[in-house]
Amino acid sequence: MCESRHPLIMKIVIVIISVFSSSDKMLPMKRVLILVVPLAWLLAACADREEPEPAEPGAEAPRVVVYTSRQPYLIEPLFARFTEETGIQVEFTSDNEASLIERLAAEGARSPADVFVTVDAGNLWFAAERGILAPLESETLREAIPAELRDPDDQWFGLSVRARSIVYHRDRVEREELSTYEDLADPRWQGRLCLRTSRKVYNQSLVAMLIHHHGEQRAEEIVSGWVANLATNPYASDTQTIEAVAAGQCDVAIVNTYYLARLVADDPNYPVAVFWANQGTTGTHVNVSGAAITRHAPRPIRARALIEWLASDAAQQEFAQRNLEFPANPAIEADPLVAAWGEFRGDETNLVVAGQRQSEAVRLMDRAGYR
Ligand SMILES: [Fe+2]
User: Fold this and answer.
1) How many CA atoms lie within 13 A of 88 on its CB side?
2) pLDDT tens, residue by residue, 8-35
3) Which residue in 280, 339, 291 sits closest to 133, CA to CA?
4) What is the CA(46)–ligand 1 centre distance, in A?
5) In the prediction, which pLDDT does 61 show?
6) Interatomic CA distance for residues 264 and 272, integer angstroms
7) Ligand 1: centre distance to CA 331 (Å)
């Protein structure tokens, strides 16, 4: 807001100079008012960018309001820690991302929300397209979060990384048989592949990246090959998909690794393992969960404080560990269970592509018969 008034500052300076250089007999008091009023207004506008927002009437403590599609048990402990460290209360509303995006759009300037937290770059990109986010210029975030994990226009920031890779049954597949997502379209995997439904944004983002790397025609051949190799109809969740592999209904699947990590945490002898896909080619498909300032955030300073805090070293570790994901900040270590799977190279394509090609991906999957 302060920055946007720079052209006005110039105009006001010109007016003031012309008033003082004019030869009419304007009363000194009037001249003083012409000088003081606009300056006070400008100072007020700039001050509310630099000082903490004042406490709200009736509120017991300073607060920030978050709309989040993340499961409360994953995010609530982090908010509690932020409150402990800063004294700022976090009030949050949980719902699915589509409802929250439409709610923010409908509420417009009356929205109480300061921060939007959700999963998948496809969702974050759509929120930006829908016009409900605001850019946040932050050196802190630029330093902590690699460029490919945040919006090039600073409208959203990845805070945890999830890898969508290949998993396989230890007794039914040799690791040497595995290589790439593309290879799972080969007829030798016929009747051996399990997938989650194409309606999940995770798969839409994966296919969007395939289109980016190979063009639409080749991507469609790959997805059609997957469909031809399916052992069963696609599952509703990643966990069901992994359980089908464990039960021997299929041998390989493509899932987010944190779902497998949860199963392995409960049973160290779980018969399904991770294979890092596409290490010799495009890198394993990665995505993020992330956060953004809402367009009409009533408390933008606290919103910034919360998002920057979530990117800080201590928060990054916990943010990733709670859901057995990977920290977005590469300097921070993953949970030991996840780190034991070894290093991998993630696809370094900017995740904005996942959103830009999302509708193409949906149409392609439909044509390929992927339900
Ligand atoms: Fe998930």
Assistant:
1) 23
2) 445 554 555 555 555 454 455 555 555 5
3) 291
4) 41
5) 87
6) 8
7) 24
- Average of per-residue pLDDT across 182-206: 98
What is the distance in A from the centroid of ligand 1 to the CA of 48? 38
- How much is the pLDDT for 34? 56
Span from the CA of 313 to the centroid of ligand 1 (angstroms): 23
**CA 327/CA 160 separation, integer angstroms:** 5
pLDDT band at 59 (very low <50, low <70, confident <90, very high): confident
Q: How far is the CA of 323 from the centre of ligand 1 (A)?
A: 9
Please list, in sequence order, all residues whose beta carbon lies within 8 angstroms of the beta carbon of residue 218, skipping any fewer than 6 positions away: none
Q: Which amino acid makes up residue 113?
A: A
pLDDT band for 147, please (50, 70, 90 cuts). very high
For the domain 63-161+288-332, what is the CATH code? 3.40.190.10
CATH superfamily of 162-285+355-367: Periplasmic binding protein-like II (3.40.190.10)
Strand, helix or coil for residue 227: helix
